[in-house]
Amino acid sequence: MASDHTRSAILAAAERLYADRGFGDVTLRDIVAEANVNLAAVNYHFGSKDELIAELFVTRSIATNRERLRELKAAEEQGGGRAPIEVILRALVGPTLRGCLGPQNQRSTAARFMIRASIESVPPIRRIKNREIDHLRKFAGAMRRALPERSEVDIYWGLNFALAMAHHTIRESERLTKLSEGKCDLDDVEDVVARVVSVATMALTAGKVEAKPRALARDAR
Amino acid sequence: MASDHTRSAILAAAERLYADRGFGDVTLRDIVAEANVNLAAVNYHFGSKDELIAELFVTRSIATNRERLRELKAAEEQGGGRAPIEVILRALVGPTLRGCLGPQNQRSTAARFMIRASIESVPPIRRIKNREIDHLRKFAGAMRRALPERSEVDIYWGLNFALAMAHHTIRESERLTKLSEGKCDLDDVEDVVARVVSVATMALTAGKVEAKPRALARDAR
DNA sequence: TTGCAATTCAAACAGTTGTATGAAACTATC
DNA sequence: GATAGTTTCATACAACTGTTTGAATTGCAA
C-alpha cells in the first residue's frame, strides 16, 4: 500500500549523504533536500532521525549476517556438521570485507555507508551492534566444533582477532594505503580475505599459546 | 605566569566527563559546571571546544608514543641496531594496551578517556590520528631490519594486523567479555599483550603467505 | 597607590538542530 | 462524487549549541 516513493527516496538520499559526508555533518534538511521531499516526511515515515539511521544500518547489516550464516551453514553441512576452521573464518570475515572493500570507484553506496558506520559509530548504530552477540555465538560454536581440542578461551580470542583484523582493515584502509605507499592493495579483496583468514587460522591452530612469554619483555628492558 | 588553576580544572573535568559519558552528550556547559568555572573560560583558555578535545588527546597520545619509541629504541640499541620482531611488536602494542586495559575499577581517567576516543572518533581526534603515520613508519623500519628477507608488503600487513588486534580489543573489550562470558580476562593486560604479540609474530614469520588459497573458498560452496 | 594587563563573569548572540502542528492535497472506496 | 484515510506541505517551535561581548574583578609591577 501507499506509493512508498517518498520513503525510499529518503533512504537512498540519506545513505548517499551519510556515505559521502559522514553522520556528523548531514542534517535532516540536507537529506530532504537531496531527496526532494518535505522536511516533515522523515518523522512521518521513520519516526525520528535515529530510527532512519537504524533502519539504514539494520538493512545492510542483516544482509551481511545472512550471507555469513549461509556460508557457515553450507560449510558445516558439507562437512557433516563440522567445517574446517579456515572455511568458518572465511564465512565470518569474507562477506564483511567483500561488502566494504574493492575498487574505490566501483564501491556501492551501501559499501561506503557501511565503512562510515564502522568509522564514526553513532548511538543508534552502536545500539544495534551490541545485539550482534547472539550472531557471533553461532560462529564460536562452529569454531569449537572445528577445534574441539582447543580451549574455549583460545576460541574466543581467535574470533576476536579475526574480527579485529577485518574491521580494522576496513576502518583504516586509507591509512594503510598511505603508510604502505600503495604497496598494500586493498582493491584485491580476495587477497585481503586470504590474509586475514590465514593469520586467524594460525592464531587458532598454532601450538598452545606458550605460557606468557614475559621473559621477552624483560630482555627488552 | 597566571594561576593556571582554571585551565587545569577544565582539562580534568572534561577528561572525566568525556570518559564517563562520551563526546556525544557532554556540552561545554556540563564541563564548566563540573569544573566550577565560567562558560567563557573554555574559549578563553583553549580557543574552542575542538581545541580542548585535541589538547586532551594529544597529551595522552604523545605520552604513549614516547613510551613506544623508548621501548623500541632500547631494544634496537641492545641488539646492535636490530631487535627481535617480538620485542618490536611488544613496543608497538604494549604501551597502548597497558594504557587502556587493566582492572576496570583501577583504570585511570586518562585510560577511560583514551578508550572513548578510540570508540567514538570525533573530528578533532581523527585529525590528530591521521598525523600518526610518520610515527608508524619508524616501526615499519625496525620491522624491516628485523625481517630483511620478508617482503615490504608483508611487513605492512603485519603491522596493520598487530594494531588491529590491539585497538579492536580495546574498543570491543566489553563485547568480548560478554561474548566469552568472562572467560577472556581483559584485566590481565600482560596476557593480552602476549597474545597479540604472539599472533602478530606468527603472521610475520610464518612461511610465505601461500598464493591466495582460493581453493578453500571454492570447496566451501 | 596607581596603572596595566590578565582573567573572570553574566549575559546575550546567532545559528542550527530535530520535532510537532494543522491545514491542504491526494487516493481509493463505496 | 462524497467520504475517510493517507500523505504532503509550509511553518513554527523549543531547545540547545559553541562562541562573543564588554564590563567587572583580580593580580602584579612600578
Number of helices of chain A: 12
Oligomer: homodimer
Total domain count of chain A: 2
Distance between the terminal alpha carbons of chain A, to the nearest Å? Answer: 71 Å
The computed structural class of chain A is mainly alpha
CATH architecture of the largest domain in chain A: Orthogonal Bundle
**Low-confidence parts of chain A, pLDDT < 50 over ≥5 residues?**
209-221
* Strand elements of chain A, count: 0
Radius of gyration of chain A: 20 Å
CATH level-4 homologous superfamily of the largest domain in chain A:
Tetracycline Repressor, domain 2
SSE arrangement of chain A, N to C: HHHHHHHHHHHH
Helix content of chain A: over 70%
Major sheet of chain A: size, sense and barrel closure? none
CATH topology of the largest domain in chain A: Tetracycline Repressor, domain 2
In short:
The structure is a homodimer of 221-residue chains. With 221 residues, chain A is an all-alpha fold. Chain A contains twelve helices and no strands.
